[in-house]
Specification:
It is a single chain. This protein is an alpha/beta fold. About 35% of the residues lie in helices and about 15% in strands. The protein has one domain: 3-Layer(aba) Sandwich (Rossmann fold). The protein binds S-adenosylmethionine. S-adenosylmethionine binds next to β1, α2, β2 and α4.
């Protein structure tokens, strides 16, 4: 855990150069910076799509770090409840999703692909084991509420950790921001300006942030 301004070498990161399929560079930078600042080892991502953000995270974890990433299987596409916008994203070229960005050495060994509907998936065996959960799956109110509940339970209380949401303040997915307004009435939620990211720290991370401020 770093308790001082990291050196330039410690701040060195890797990321996928953007194309029309990649997340915004600033969002990637903030996500990776959070991983570094909290010395994250275990990450769960809900919503893999092409696995670009999975790869960005995996490429910046310390030795022994690991990312689990969950997305709908083909069967879930017919049964999962989702809004039309999410259904369109979920149906984006399935062949590209079947060959995600991290499916090459050495990254493939740092990533485990999970399949299922996050609102039905049994996360309980992983509860208390994650240092960061990235919520970027379905964006309707029911799914975001379920994913948020699971995300907090997944965090390891003994180490600094964070839940990060994508699509906060995205006008195309208004349920996310509305849900986070509710979460923000119970705990601190940080909305990151000029991005669609928001995050909340667990008590161990909040204590670390207080020490540094
Ligand atoms: C916006 S994309 C994820 C983008 C990815 N995190 C990135 O930054 O590169 C959302 C993904 O969530 C998946 N998804 C939607 N509803 C889901 C659910 N209920 N359970 C699991 N995955 C879901 C979709 O199939 C889609 O691939």
């Amino acid at each position: 855990m770093l308790h001082r301004t990291p050196t330039a070498a410690e701040r060195l990161v890797s990321f996928v150069l953007p194309t029309d399929r990649t997340p915004k560079l600033l969002e990637t930078a903030i996500l990776v910076a959070l991983c570094k600042a909290l010395d994250v080892r275990h990450v769960l991502e809900i919503g893999t799509l092409y696995g670009i953000q999975t790869l960005n995270i995996a490429a910046n974890l310390p030795h022994g770090g690991h990312v689990w990433t969950l997305d709908l299987g083909d069967d879930d596409l017919t049964t999962a409840e989702m809004d039309e916008r999410d259904r369109a994203i979920a149906q984006l070229p399935r062949d590209a999703q079947a060959e995600p960005a991290f499916a090459v050495e050495p990254w493939s060994t740092r990533v485990t692909k999970l399949t299922g509907d996050s609102t039905r998936y049994d996360f309980t065996p992983m509860n208390g084991t994650m240092n960061l959960v990235y919520v970027d799956g379905g964006h309707d109110a029911r799914t975001v509420a379920s994913d948020t509940r699971n995300a907090f339970a997944l965090l390891d209380p003994a180490r600094p950790g964070a839940v990060v949401w994508h699509d906060d303040a995205n006008p195309l997915h208004p349920d996310v921001g509305e849900h986070l307004d509710g979460v923000g009435r119970e705990r601190d939620v940080y909305h990151v300006g000029d991005t669609m990211l928001a995050f909340a720290l667990n008590p161990a991370a909040a204590a670390l942030a207080a020490q540094l401020s």
